[in-house]
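Fill in residues.
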């Protein structure tokens, strides 16, 4: 799956913000809390991009 520049930028921003929040909360980088704080926003972002792509495909097929 090839990412567009916008998608790559959004993923990078979400990962940076999540990592910063995890760091500010003073969680150990290998703790499960840190893992969840970083992974959950990335999964939400990925889901939103998949929904957007599916909607775009449906509009193209009409």
């Amino acid at each position: 799956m090839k990412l567009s520049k916008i998608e790559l930028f959004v993923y990078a921003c979400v990962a940076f913000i999540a990592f910063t929040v995890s760091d500010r909360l003073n969680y150990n980088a290998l703790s499960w809390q840190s893992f969840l704080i970083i992974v959950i926003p990335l999964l939400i972002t990925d889901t939103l991009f998949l929904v957007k792509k599916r909607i775009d495909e449906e509009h193209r097929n009409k």
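Residues 5-61 form one domain.
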